[in-house]
Design brief:
three-stranded antiparallel sheet; about 15% strand; D-Maltodextrin-Binding Protein, domain 2; about 40% helix; 19 helices
Length: about 450
């Protein structure tokens, strides 16, 4: 990741990480010898796509005699804390870790990760050139890849075509947030148990702040100006916060202050929301007959905007190799298997094409079976990922990388604190102004530290 414009990036750990590291003692060594030889310990985030990889892992073991796989699957927040602690201390607990484009460039710069480019270059048929450029670049540092993507996503809006038709409404291909608010008001049906829209309100820098920050961006706001002055009480940031909070309070799901991706996904798939703005990966669940009551009833359009041309985020779950990994070649063979072209086809054939890990490889969008199964959302997903950059999603320059996050180590703590304030406003426990004033104080502390190192 290049130095942030307007200031020199610093290699220091946030207070939250230091606290986590204190809990990292007692980690078992990676690559312990199992009964059949090498045991690779793989830390992943617990979600359906990763569970499919676990279900197929015996195929890798059969193809690689003497290599056993042991998965440590944890909810996102727990996984982040445990993986961060282990990797930062070079504790050697894991051979392969699942991280994102938030961590990858920072950890590569810190020297915590193995450079994967030599492995990629010596792997015929792996074809890193097949990765969508925005995804590949987000996982690179100084031109080399330090993690490889398992799935990628942007954000878009899902809506119930049948409910829109019944109400005589037409969803534009590129809606504005003002239009979405109007639709939510008309489609909100509390007696029928249908919310006008579902949005995340659950605290967490990777929960409510992901969609919320895209709203801030397209409303013309930003976390910091180019000189690292906090901007959370600016008119633009305040307008975005008031809009988001009011939309949820008036036409959002019940209990919105504690609803995250999973909760909104369940609600929408059970027919209890007319619209849902979130990660493009949601579409696979929405269209899965085994978990959804609304298969075939949804349309998918670009992330809503206000002042910008687009507003979708960019995110990818990827696999990385900690520096402390002892069995590097075996770890790479597993990473190559789980992120390769053949794995995509295997998932489609075994579990259904809606379960394919999306948003990483261009070749995925050339598979006829996948295009047929994903015809409602394949193109909007690909467009969102390819168009996700700061130039099109923000109105003003910023000193940090990232669209739905601020790409600095301190954001794990800062973002979580601000998200707690946002959730309190959604719950009606404090006003938006009160929440933003407190949030501004948190951000000013971070900004001051960066100004002092300029």
């Amino acid at each position: 990741m290049p130095d942030a414009p307007g200031g020199r990036r610093r290699r220091r750990l946030p207070l939250l990480l230091l606290a986590v590291l204190l809990l990292a003692s007692g980690c078992a060594g990676a690559g312990a010898l199992g009964a059949g030889g090498k045991t690779l310990v793989i830390a992943i985030v617990a979600n359906p796509q990763m569970n499919d990889a676990i279900a197929l892992s015996d195929r890798f073991e059969r193809a690689h005699p003497g290599v056993n796989l042991r998965f440590v699957s944890l909810p996102e927040n727990q996984a982040r804390a445990k993986i961060t602690a282990s990797t930062a201390t070079q504790g050697g607990e894991f051979d392969v870790v699942m991280i994102s484009n938030y961590e990858t460039p920072q950890w590569a710069e810190n020297g915590w990760l193995e450079n994967l480019q030599p492995y990629i270059d010596s792997s015929p048929g792996y074809d890193a050139g097949d990765f969508i450029p925005s995804i590949r670049d987000s996982l690179s540092y100084q031109g080399d890849m330090y993690s490889v993507p398992f799935y990628g996503e942007s954000s878009f809006l899902a809506y119930r075509k049948d409910l829109f038709a019944k109400a005589g409404l037409t969803m534009p291909a590129n809606p504005t947030w003002r239009q979405i608010a109007e639709f939510a008001a008309k489609l909100d049906d509390k007696r029928a148990g249908i919310a006008g829209i579902c949005l995340r309100g659950k605290p967490g820098w990777g929960e409510s702040l992901a969609p919320f920050t895209t709203v801030v961006n397209t409303f013309g706001g930003r976390w910091f100006d180019r000189n690292w002055n906090a901007q959370l009480t600016s008119p633009e940031f305040r307008a975005a916060a008031e809009f988001y909070v009011n939309l949820l309070r008036e036409h959002g799901e019940p209990g919105a202050a504690s609803a995250g991706f999973s909760e909104c996904g369940t609600r929408y798939a059970q027919g209890q929301a007319a619209m849902w703005y979130d990660a493009t990966v949601m579409a696979g669940t929405n269209e899965d007959p085994s978990s959804s009551r609304i298969v075939g009833k949804s349309g998918y359009v670009a992330a809503p905007v206000n002042k910008t041309d687009s507003s979708g985020w960019l995110y990818t779950w990827s696999l990385a190799m900690p520096k402390a990994t002892e069995h590097k070649q075996a770890a790479w063979e597993f990473m190559r298997w789980m992120t390769g072209k053949d794995f995509v086809r295997t998932v489609g054939e075994e579990f259904g094409w809606n379960r394919v890990p999306p948003g990483c490889r261009r070749s995925t969008y050339e598979i006829p079976e996948y295009l047929e199964a994903a015809k409602a959302y394949a193109r909007p997903t690909l467009n969102g990922i390819e168009n996700a950059d700061q130039d099109s999603t923000m109105t003003e320059p910023v000193p940090y990388p990232g669209i739905q996050f601020v790409g600095i180590p301190e954001f794990q703590d800062l973002g979580t604190r601000v998200s707690q304030q946002l959730s309190a406003a959604i719950a009606g426990q404090k006003t938006v102004d009160e929440a933003l004033r407190q949030s501004q104080e948190y951000a000013e502390t971070v900004g001051q530290a960066y100004r002092e190192t300029r």
